[in-house]
Amino acid sequence: MTDAARPHRIVGQPIGRLDGLDKVTGRGRYSADVSLPGLVWGKALRSPLPHARILRIDPSKAQALPGVLAVLTAQDLPRVLVGRRMFDMPLLARDRVRFVGEKVAAVAALDPDIAEEALALITVEYEDLPAVFDPVRAIEDGAPVLHEDPGAYDGAPPERPHPNVQSVLRFKLGDAAAGLREADRIFEHTFRTGLAHHGYIEPHAGVVAIDEDGRVQVWASNKMPFRLRELLSHAIQLPKERIRVNLTPIGGDFGGKGSLMDLPLAYYLARVTGRPVKMVMRYTEELMAGNPRHPAVITLRTGVTEDGRIVARRVTALYNSGAYAAFKPAPSVNLGGASMGAGVYRIPHLLIESFCVYTNNVPCGHARSPGEPQMVFAEESHMDMIARDLGLDPAELRRRNLLRDGDLLPNGHHLEHVRAQETLEAALEASDWAKPKPGPWIGRGVAMCHRHIGVGFTNARVRLETDGRVSLVIGLPDTGTGAHMVLRQVVAEVLGLSIDEVQIELATTDTFETDSGVGGSRVTHTGGRAAYHAAEALKEQIRAETAKLAMPTASLAELAQAAARAGRTLEASYFYDAKAHGAVTSFTAQVAEVSVDPTTGHVTVRRFTTAHDVGTIINPIGHQGQIEGGLIQGLGFALMEELRTEDGRISTLSLGDVKLPTIADIPPLTTVILHDPVGPGPFHAKAIGEGSISPVAPAVANAVADACGVRVLDLPITAEKVYFALRARAPRS
Amino acid sequence: MLHLTVNGTSHDVEIPTYRTLLDCLRYDLGLTGSKEGCGVGVCGACAVLLDGTMISSCIALAVFADGREVTTVEGLADDERLHPVQQAFIDYGGFQCGICTPGQVVAAKALLDAIPDPSDAEIREWMLGNLCRCTGYYKIIESIRAAARPRRP
Amino acid sequence: MNAFDYRAPRGLDETFAILQEYGDDASVVAGGTALVTMMKQGLVRPRCVVSLRDVDGLDGIEATNGALRLGARVTHREAEVSSLVMERLPVLAETFRRVGTIRIRHMATIGGALAHADPNQDPPVTLLALGATVEIRRAGSRRALPLEAFFRDYYETALEPGELVTGITVPLLAPASGAAFLKFLPRTADDYATVAVAVTVTLEPDGEHGREARIALGSVGTTPLRGRAAEALLSGERLDENLLRAVEEAIKAAVDPLSDHRGSAAYKREMAAVMVGRALTQAWEAARRAAREGR
To answer: Of A121, A337, A478, C265, which residue is 20 to 30 A from A141 by alpha carbon distance?
Structure first.
């Protein structure tokens, strides 16, 4: 690896993304833009009931509608269960629906409007079954059971204290029960968060075509095309070599675009009709059935000494996973963010238990920092409530407990290069934490988190072309983060080229054997290292070829042409597999400054400060873009967004009602960057994609409490909640 | 039979009455630059100009454009020379995944046509209906400010 | 959307004939922001969509005696930036400006907004406070209806089958008057109101005592409402803290909000009072200034 202290030529430069041309001209073809001769449209009929037996489906009137080419129900499909790790979901509901929005039938028609009309003509007879919606109720004795034998599903984890528990994940240090008994003071609080949709502006879309060779061609808004190929192979019962996933740019992922969604249905419709099939979810379908972020009920019980040192903590998290476990990809079939029950603190005795629970709600999946914004909201609010009770400045309570070099995490790592303290101080300083507030009803709140750099595996190939440019062949789709630009900069740096001399050649799933795809803040690391080492190998080949051909002054183009005449292509491949998280994390500290209008409860964020402990930054524009984007998602989660349900039925049925933040809702933002080039990525880069989202909600909640004494324990923090809490304290303000 | 001009080119196209302007542009005319996001006119990904006025094409019937001129994102650049807002979005990182970007640049162009030197408040008000989930908007504002700068006297 | 006949008449007579032909199976469209959205959601399935987009005589903003008349097809944006409206009824221009986003305002028409009768809309609130009158026409006749008689229920108006809104006449403010419109939307900047309030106040020639006040509220019932009991409290009075509190209590009793995504009924009731208090204070202050300046 190169010497990270030396400034780089291309790495670290704020170069505008060269793939911007396709974006700003609308030339980029996303999955919904793909057009093929003879293409027809697929649509899915969805259950209106949360839990019911299917007695009868009559597709005949739909089949008779002019323009309808096919109607499929479960009877027409093999008995396959799909999932990302635990395979518990049918392609179409067979004899039972388990959530409002579950797919019951699929239609192919000449245009999407006819397909929709056809759905309305399919009659389904249901018989209601008792349903359960609350995860606390779902694990009580006598609760309606969704799956008779979840342990029998492929990929099901073995521990099952109740048939409605999908999985249990524990993080443990020492003996929490004993530790709590030793504490001077004990605090216990419970917090709740709700469903949160990723809010990507591109709904799920896919095209499936079966070509003359019988190969299945797929274009899909899916960020892990190689895993998609595997999962599709299993779902449609064809060897994966018969499937080719063609990469398309993706209009926002944020963790939500890693599953099969409607693709198997598109395949079967394509098979039955003999035509390519496109399926695009309407946004209402996204809101009903789009694998959103898990709602959570989290209880923390912390024991501290009189002077505010944490001695023990017990955390119980119930993540309301909905009707199927199918959308969760982790081997634990649980949410890694639960580990943040420990916060950024040294806790000698810790027990975190995270339960993912079946209920008759929309099945949930991964979302940016899976499980983490929920847990960090709870944990960092809890810390502030402890501080207030002990009479300590919330920053001081944190200082007394921050992780240090060498501290042991529950995953067995001893942390290195810990800069929790520095990051906290940087946020406090930049936010004027210690200065008097500018007026009444103004408050400040602090919150922190930390995160490992993502791991996975990537294949990369670099090739010297005869025009002297270098192609980087990569099977990672463009989800918008700017990763392709980062990889180009890495290759250009290694090879001493200008950025224009490096181009991306997007692979298909035919090109490489595998790739873990985009997600988990891993691409700069895994894609970057693969590209780096491939480029290093190519550099070596160039040196060798130059010597072999005795052309010391040849340009790269001349060299490549000469090699080509000799029957050789200068090309190097590298497979990088980052097997486990390292001992380095990235810390984030944020401070929110809010004002509360006491006559309405309205919370305004006056300013926001975010401090990040990062590695080498490869593209500062992209890096900052990730910070800002994640932060505003966190702000929406904290204050604005809601996906409401009543008895399993989602009543927020348009994106307009979700209340995503608009351009007029963003607060003035100060970012502080603390560089420490110690990451596992190329040139000692770390990761940033999931660094800024989680502390936002507790920073805001803590600021609100500071401003007006109201402690909101469930998100979003609405004006109404604050208003009535203020009224309860002082009936006449 | 619908007769409309898109980005200066005339089209005659046979469509059912229920066709939205967005679907007509994307599927009947193959101009997939305008995108469908929310489908209810809120997110702005479908923004086009109808006789120079910015509308949500996902909730406009295609027949509304009969005999009229439509400008889409594909019509902003002059051959290979990008419109200043397009260039600014590239230079300042006003896009990430790009799905909202066509709507953003159409809206930004319409803004600068209406108000050549907009204040921050005017930028926010005009661009209110263009949702972005990736950028957090900071760099969109920066991009628009940068595109407006040369227009100052 | 379902398949439908699309008719684009040129004149009102032709329009009425088509409406007669299709009866209940026809829906009228101008901007389309409400109708097309509802058709896409499958909530409305007309057999015929009759467009008013090319019909003569529905445009224009003009000053008439002591009033402004806006044609039914005037868009929110046209009203927002009209120099006539900005000069003579700035509170109305400001109200139109708060509706949705610029794209919606470019498409949605005043006539369409009134006919849609969503109690969460903003313009009807201010129009109610200004004492507007709706022009309605049918084949062979026309009538005028005060706006408070026009809204019957959630999405329901006094329009009979075959009738169309063709315009709205809005009286200018009397001398010594002030007006204010407040839209309270605590979630994000693009939303319907949790509560919207418009207040007009006219003072006695002494510039201190109230002569007439009109208080209108939106998003607090199945139609936009007048707070008449609250208005009556202001007659002949000077505005002070006690009177403001009394007005606020009267408002709480007058409204019957529905809980929705923007607030519970209880919260909307509280905010109705708060916003009326604020709007009344603003309008009263503007009226006092007008009285002082002899306007």
So the answer is: A337
